[in-house]
Known about the structure:
InterPro entries: YycH, YycH/YycI_2. This is Regulatory protein YycH domain-containing protein. It is a single chain. By secondary structure, the chain is α+β, with helices and mostly antiparallel strands. The chain has a domain of about 110 residues. Helix content is about 25%, strand content about 35%. The strands form 2 sheets. The protein has a 16-stranded mixed sheet that branches. The longest helix has 27 residues. It is globular.
Amino acid sequence: xxxxxxxxxxxxxxxxxxxxxxxxxxxxxxxxxxxxxxxxxxxxxxxxxxxxxxxxxxxxxxxxxxxxxxxxxxxxxxxxxxxxxxxxxxxxxxxxxxxxxxxxxxxxxxxxxxxxxxxxxxxxxxxxxxxxxxxxxxxxxxxxxxxxxxxxxxxxxxxxxxxxxxxxxxxxxxxxxxxxxxxxxxxxxxxxxxxxxxxxxxxxxxxxxxxxxxxxxxxxxxxxxxxxxxxxxxxxxxxxxxxxxxxxxxxxxxxxxxxxxxxxxxxxxxxxxxxxxxxxxxxxxxxxxxxxxxxxxxxxxxxxxxxxxxxxxxxxxxxxxxxxxxxxxxxxxxxxxxxxxxxxxxxxxxxxxxxxxxxxxxxxxxxxxxxxxxxxxxxxxxxxxxxxxxxxxxxxxxxxxxxxxxxxxxxxxxxxxxxxxxxxxxxxxxxxxxxxxxxxxxxx
Length: 444
């Protein structure tokens, strides 16, 4: 009898141990599920464009392949989209936290063998990784990351890199899955785009093309999104709205609390919800994800957009239009989606109403842009007190403009853009500004 009792006790003890282990694992791997729709989903069901996954909006703007100490740009946007998705789908096996003594040590360790580096245009909260890729443990000493490196060594791994703090999260990945990504890269024509490095802001390694860039200037047929779509999406009862026409030609619709303002040309809108001015402290990743879900609630993604900036202090999030993998800029905000938050609700929502429909093939023009070295040389000549320590990024992008005589047509012109002292600015370099020989800059 005593033997049976002892046996039962042993079984109960074993079950308690298993339960304890299960609870411990649950606590370690718990991922908070933010209620993104709380106080946001007061919108009517309206489909203006598309819904997007988080990793379709939070994505890199530069892909660099490293091989034998050399660096190559991977620039085909359809190819990089495929590669990025494959990286996001990698299964992580083990993980650890790594600290480097200097940015140079980080580079020497991670870039000495074949690897792929993906650079984001803004620092990302580490917990964002739980939503753009497979879930990982959240309790890291690292708070943010701005790059992902996939090492194709004998023991392949994925690294979430924080250059600002010289830290990384290392995730071991399956060799077979990493090998497939490497094979695709090796069979691409990446060696046609050699890049060199410079040390930029906070010791960040910046990559610039050795050669001049051949890229097409594009012209698009456009169509404005109807303001009535946003009236239906952003107000509970659009039929009760009061309409006002302002002296400058703008239209305003209000329900007595909230207001929707439409520009004279029907190409920009601003939605304001002033009742909620109390500042409710959102965690950075929650604010970013809520901003994406807010647009998803009315299927508001009409073109390709990428997260480009956010501010915890100002409670703002910005998304930038992209064409063929390049950021598109406009001085009047015609290529940006801007959101600000108060008391856990949308406070202000500003965006372009222009939708790019299709490129007009007959209007395409080939443009030759300066090389990275020519760009740096030009900046030292024309920009007062230019210093690499203030340079955060240098990318080829597009300048967006609409035809004056035909507002249904828009052109995106290739141009160098730099992020300097926290601000993006376009750099126009005429062919006469480059004294070196070689092919002529500008339109062919």
